[in-house]
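To whoever picks this up:

The nightly regression suite flagged ABC transporter substrate-binding protein as changed. Nothing in the input moved, so I suspect the structure step. Input below, exactly as stored in the fixture:
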Amino acid sequence: MRALRTAVALLAALALAGCGASVSESPAEAPKGRASGHYPVTVKNCGVKTTYDKAPQRVVTNDVGIAEIMFALGLEDHMAGYVAPDYKGDRESVPWADGYKKVKWLSKKEITKEIVLDAKADLVFAGWNYGFGEGNGFTPAALKKLGIGSYVLTESCHNGTGASRGVMPPLEALYADLETLGKVFDVEDRARALTDRFKKQVADAQAQVPADGPKPKVFLYDSGQDKPTTAGAYAGPHDIITKAGGDHVMKDLKDSWTQVGWETVVERDPDVIVINNYGDVSAEQKKKFLKSYGPLANVSAVKNDRIFVLDYVDLVESPRNPAAIAALAGFLKGVRNA
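Regenerated output under the current build:
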């Protein structure tokens, strides 16, 4: 009977450990960080509170910007791999480029339960429509049943109005994720230093923007010919455009990435169009379409050939957002001075 009780107690302890609950340990068995008093730590992510008894050790990320958040925080050793499309943009000039060499590229296709199970993941860092989705059954709830935790990209949080996403301004979402992940992985000083550097980068760019006078109206073109996919107030381009000195023409859309009609674009007559460069349709092909599409012929940006290209990872929530603000600010300065 004593042996049976011991076995049951052991199984209970293992079950608690698997779901992240605290289990008493001897000092020699305590996870790294526990001795300092950092763990357990409770954080809130997209409105959900989660307690971590130790830092996750086998994180799988989905999409390029999310992988680079981990790289920028120096968390490569906590990653089992990343899932991302065959990304053709610049990986070499970013300060965290070594992350691509250190961490395994698990798949160029859609993230799946099989991929994360094969990687023995203990946490998946993805976003709604950045990997997580009710339609494909890949959700935090589904992963929890497999004993795998989830962290949701703050830019993609559902905001309670149907399928709409976004709960805070985009740069605040980036800073919130850096702060929260800093707590989860016990790298709060690193996260704070990164955030301070990004805020200075943004402030320096904004210092070049005139305080008064008209602002160039800017439209973000992601993709689509029948209807354009664009960015609302809660997607990265909103802050990139506004902090670079532009007037985001779709700022009234309380969503992140969404579709509008071309008639809305024509009516709002942007002075500048920013192209999101990614996928099988090149930026040059997108530009050719915009310039040849009849309804846009009299739109100021098309008529004056004021089309600026930024890379996908510049425009989704990522540590490249501040540099994108600086780059666009330089372009808009030229538009104002023309």
